[in-house]
Structure formats: structure tokens, C-alpha cells
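All the exercises in this workshop are built on plain-text protein records. The record below serves as our worked example for the rest of this section.
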Amino acid sequence: MSDAVHVLPDGTICVIRGGIGRIRAPSGQPALLRAAAMLRLEQDEVAPGAHTFEVDIVDAANRRLDLTGLVEADSPPLPFRMPVTIVAGRPAQFVANMQVPFVARETYALVFRVDDTEVYRVKLEIEDLTPADLQALGVIGSHESPR
């Protein structure tokens, strides 16, 4: 998970702020995940030919997250499925940009599947910002009186 992923014409990948796994928000407010998820499969992982890539979000009990009415209009629906054709000798790359609000403070997982078989899982922890976090961000001021 990262802020952004760009696949360049030469096949290389540019990742901006990669490694997102924890999303935090003030208590009582949804935690919004705005991120790009990228999966790269090397030739020995998937046979050449037609396949379907899928990305989904599940809870700790492996239940699909119900995002009905919550996902913004410009974000693809989840699970997001995309047909791909894998060419012999070349890696396959899959990028999904998403905006997903989380109300509950739980642990979720972003799941990647190829042809309905899970190939990778990223843990997502949803947490409240602490008062110290909010103060450091300038959202709330210090409780000390000025002298």
C-alpha cells in the first residue's frame, strides 16, 4: 500500500510513500484510506494467458467488507476485478487506486487474488488518533495556559 504507484513505460514502478498499513483518524470519525495498491507477479508465479486479478478488503474473520453507499463515486467498487493477459517472459502488474472509509476500529486485510486464488494479503490496522497525535498535527491546542 502506498500513496501512489505509477507504472512507467519501461516497465519499472514508481512508488510514493510505500508501506501504508495503519490508518488513523479522530475518535468518532471514519478513517479514510486513500491509497494505491500494486501487485507485481513474476513469470514463474502465473502461467501465460488470460487471468483475472482481484483486490478486496476483508475483516479479521475473512468476511468481505460491505461498502455499500460508503465508497466515493470515483473509486472502483470492491471487490475490484480486472481481466489481464499475461505475456510469456514478462511480469504482470496490477494497480488499484482506492478511497475506502472505515468506521469500526478493527484490523482488516487487503487481499489480492489471481483467478480466485489468494496470492498476497496486506494487513490494515484502523486506529483512533490519540490527543497527543492531534496536538502534534495542530488539530487541538495545548491544555496549558499561556504565561
About this structure: The longest strand covers residues 117-128.
